[in-house]
Amino acid sequence: MAVAEFLFHAELNRFIAPALRARRFSHPCARNATVKHMIEVFGVPHTEVGAVWINGVPVDFSTLLREGDRVEVRPWHASRNEERAMLRRAHGERFVADAHLGQLARNLRMLGFDVLYRNDFSDAEVAALSATEDRIVLTRDRDLLIRKQIEHGCFLHATHADEQVMEVLRRFRLADAVQAFSRCLSCNAPLQAAAPEEVAARVPPQSHASHERFFECVGCERVYWEGSHVVRMRARIAQWLERAQLSETARAPVR
């Protein structure tokens, strides 16, 4: 066994034991233990890690630990901006939310993002969808994010749905990718314009008479129109985007 020294930065300390937070500490490592293995031994999901340095040199997760190594683990937001852009392009804002994040899934769909969700998703199903469809996992379950199948994920620290939306927008810098009301809130499929006469039988008579624009889900065929509730939804979206853009403006450049 080798003994290495570890230091976790910023919010990564929320995952590790209180006695180990925000300080350097030594810990024995099994033979041929990788950086990824040891990070997860301490309870930190690999998806939340942005950079790992050993003895002052950046390394990847597969690096084997040696006697006397000094390991520093930095959170995901410490990744370089260009790495974030690559991740965004690779995934195209495609997510899968675990069974406890129904309101977050609905809110992100309202913003136009592709989010798979069912309230009976098992952890195994979420992990499989992430792997087979190359989706970013959204969850508050760190044990789920440690699964080997999951390459990219996001642990939501917030418990309120609006704050969770802000976490996702900020982390993946999605404010300029929003296409509000372009996706079905129920089944996640895209919406398409529909002629009033085509949807008349599926819309209340009063709503059909007072609106000219209708949209139909290409999946479940649910019909949408811009009622008074859309005004309130637009106001919420404007607040989210304003806060997300302000946070990016205030963020110091990452070195």
Outline the structure in words.
The longest helix has 23 residues, at 228-250. Helices cover 34% and strands 20% of the residues. The strands form 3 sheets. A 5-stranded mixed sheet has the order 2-1-5-3-4, covered by helices on one side. A 4-stranded parallel sheet has the order 7-6-8-9, sandwiched between helices. 25% of the residues are buried. It has helices at residues 35-41, 81-91, 102-110, 123-133, 142-145, 161-172, 196-199, 205-210, 228-250, and strands at 2-8, 25-29, 49-54, 57-59, 70-75, 94-97, 114-116, 136-139, 153-155, 191-194, 214-217, 223-225. Strand 8 (136-139), helix 5 and strand 9 form a beta-alpha-beta unit. With 255 residues, the chain is α/β, with parallel strands linked by helices.
Provide a brief overview of the structure:
The chain has helices spanning 35-41, 81-91, 102-110, 123-133, 142-145, 161-172, 196-199, 205-210, 228-250; strands at residues 2-8, 25-29, 49-54, 57-59, 70-75, 94-97, 114-116, 136-139, 153-155, 191-194, 214-217, 223-225.
Topology readout:
Elements: E1 2-8, E2 25-29, H1 35-41, E3 49-54, E4 57-59, E5 70-75, H2 81-91, E6 94-97, H3 102-110, E7 114-116, H4 123-133, E8 136-139, H5 142-145, E9 153-155, H6 161-172, E10 191-194, H7 196-199, H8 205-210, E11 214-217, E12 223-225, H9 228-250
Parallel strand pairs: 1-5, 6-7, 6-8, 8-9
Antiparallel strand pairs: 1-2, 3-4, 3-5, 10-11, 11-12
Helix pairs in contact: 3-6, 6-9
